[in-house]
Design brief:
heterodimer; A: mainly alpha; ABC transporter involved in vitamin B12 uptake, BtuC; 14 helices; 0% strand; B: alpha/beta; Rossmann fold; 2 domains; 11 helices; 12% strand
């Protein structure tokens, strides 16, 4: 069993595992809504759209979470504006803001002379470099996200499946939608600076989508997704250790591979089921 | 039977591991990561770049186990480690890094490892660093000056002596220093032939070379210290103008960085300026003439002389 325990011998590996696991819990809860409501592109855009905020924070030396939060606000506000004022579907607005914000980010980054503002460190934070403080932040984030999801569960659920009904029930879909967006932004901002964009986005989409293939009830989907996410983080660390591959990148590939494995198995089973029928 | 070793410390319960992780360095310092060599084991030395790996190989010889993180020919600005390599950093008795932010993809890992008690020795800041032209940032590319690397050899030998006093590290370092001073003289003689002492480089990697041998860096294609930023159209136009005004004849491009923009500049100016491919962030492969730091510095000087004479 040493090949399984060796990759978790050292403190940084344990922090990567626990930090990654906390991020997986937070992104699983949020990501389930993302997958159900078809907001994946918005999630992707948010991940990259916060870059100019962070670059500004580095340039003018203020808190990066604040910078990222401001950028997310601009991003979501812009997407909503395009959606409401034009006949375009939502993804056009997302695309516009995505490119605009990322371009702005690169412009700002090319003006910084310090390394801390480099595009690599912003986009690909490093899960193997997670500190104890980061682990505490990620833990707090996971608890908060789960709490809000439990409290707002009925509102989120109704919004996801029947917006008309949500209005009739007095659940204020506008406000619920805003809360959900804020929750997505929070999950991304809170975790991507420490564990990296790639990994956050991998965990936001991979495990919930895989869970959606396996189960159909939303709370069960969140639980399954969290389990898959934590497993992915652990398996990714084991692979990164034994195959000598980049940490964050490996951990973000694992849930995607898992998705296709589950997809393959389930489509094989349904075909066989169809034959026996 | 259950064997009680440091490996068995891995608690299967996530909560237990959470506290271990929040406790910081304790699980590393009493485990494998201790910085003191036992009586039999040779030291484990980790170098970040191939260049530092070569320097360390010359000093430690067979007396220590040496591991290099960034593979040959890969841009160290962009390289990212695996979990195994991060473990090596933690377990090593000495980690030799360039520092001043050069290893961009390793910054987080190195600083976390240091917090856990790893012995990370960053060289550039100790070698009388210079600032990049026009900006306040420190220039990390110290290895382009053999005299500074001779200083580095002495510093790491001192560090090794405090870790393991049984080996005479200083003797090996001194013979390597002699060879660095020799190639320094050799390059000086080579470069004495040319009067044209103006250069443009793809990214700001020749500051220390210019400082040591009296060259003027007229401009760089990519602004800033890193290979990852992008110049504006006006900056490129200004560079083209400056090259035409000053009559610079060579643009130095590293083998590890991107060179498309430099090619565009050459295309704009025409035949009077030449693109010279030199070794910068990584040593060259077998047969390249840049297999070691000393060969790399000599080869670069020869290429520059060829382009300018």
């Amino acid at each position: 069993m040493e090949w399984l325990t060796d990759p978790f011998d050292l403190a940084f590996q344990q922090r990567a595992l626990i930090g990654g696991a906390f991020a997986a819990v937070a992104t699983s809860v949020v990501g389930t809504w993302v997958v159900i409501r078809g907001m994946t592109f918005l999630g992707d855009a948010l991940v990259h759209g916060v870059v100019p905020g962070i670059a500004l924070a580095v340039l003018f030396d203020f808190n990066v979470f604040l910078g990222a939060g401001l950028a997310a606000l601009v991003m979501v506000g812009g997407v909503n504006l395009v959606h409401r004022q034009t006949v375009f579907s939502e993804d056009t607005g997302i695309g516009l803001l995505f490119v605009g914000m990322l371009g702005l980010g690169v412009i700002l980054i090319s003006r910084t002379t310090s390394y801390s503002g480099s595009l690599t460190s912003i986009l690909f934070g490093e899960v193997l470099g997670v500190t104890s403080r980061d682990v505490v932040i990620l833990g707090g984030l996971a608890v908060f996200v789960v709490f809000v999801s439990v409290v707002g569960y009925r509102a989120f659920l109704t919004l996801s499946f029947n917006e008309q009904k949500a209005k009739l029930l007095g659940l204020r879909p506008g406000l619920t939608n805003a809360a959900l967006l804020a929750l997505i932004a929070l999950a991304i901002i809170g975790s991507f600076e420490t564990i990296g964009t790639l990994l956050v986005f991998g965990l936001l989409v991979g495990p919930p989508a895989t869970a959606a293939l396996l189960v159909s009830r939303v709370p069960l989907m969140m639980l399954t997704s969290a389990a898959i996410g934590v497993l992915s983080v652990a398996v990714g660390l084991v692979i990164s250790f034994h195959a000598n591959t980049s940490g964050s990148a490996t951990m973000s590939v694992v849930p995607i591979v898992l998705f296709f494995v589950v997809l393959g198995v389930s489509s094989l089973r349904s075909r066989r089921g169809a034959l026996t029928l | 039977m259950l064997r009680v070793t440091t490996r068995a410390r891995v608690a299967p319960v996530a909560l237990a591991m959470f506290f271990a992780a929040c406790g910081g360095s304790d699980s590393a310092s009493d485990g494998i990561g201790s910085g003191v060599a036992s009586d039999q084991d040779p030291l484990l030395v980790v170098a970040t770049t191939t260049i530092l790996g070569d320097v360390m190989a010359n000093i430690v010889g067979d007396e220590a186990r040496l591991e290099v993180l960034v593979p040959l020919g890969v841009d160290p600005h962009e390289y990212r480690v695996s979990s195994r390599q991060a473990a090596l950093i933690q377990e090593a008795d000495l980690v030799v890094a360039n520092g001043l932010g050069f290893e961009e993809g390793l910054v987080d890992v190195l600083s976390a490892a240091r917090q856990d008690g790893a012995n990370v020795f960053e060289l550039a800041e100790l070698l009388d660093p210079i600032r990049l032209g026009g900006s306040g940032a420190w220039d990390p590319h110290v290895w382009m000056d053999p005299q500074r690397m001779a200083m580095a050899a002495r510093l790491v030998a001192g560090e090794l002596s405090t870790l393991d006093g049984r080996v005479d590290w200083t003797a090996a370092a001194d013979s390597y220093r002699t060879r660095l001073f020799e190639v320094d003289k050799e390059i000086e003689t080579l470069l004495a032939e040319i009067d044209d002492r103006q250069l443009v480089s793809n990214h700001a990697v020749f500051g220390y070379f210019a400082d040591r041998y009296g060259f003027e860096i007229v401009g760089t294609v990519i602004p800033g210290t890193t290979t990852l930023s992008d110049p504006s159209s006006a900056e490129l136009a200004e560079l083209v103008n400056r090259i035409e005004e000053t009559g610079v004849r060579a643009i130095l491009v590293g083998t590890t960085g991107p060179g498309l923009l430099a090619e565009a500049v050459v295309g704009e100016i025409g035949g009077s300026v030449e693109l010279v491919e030199v070794y910068t962030g990584s040593l060259g492969g077998p047969g390249s003439g840049a297999e070691t730091l000393i060969d790399m510095l000599r080869t670069n000087a020869q290429l520059i002389v060829e382009a300018l004479s």
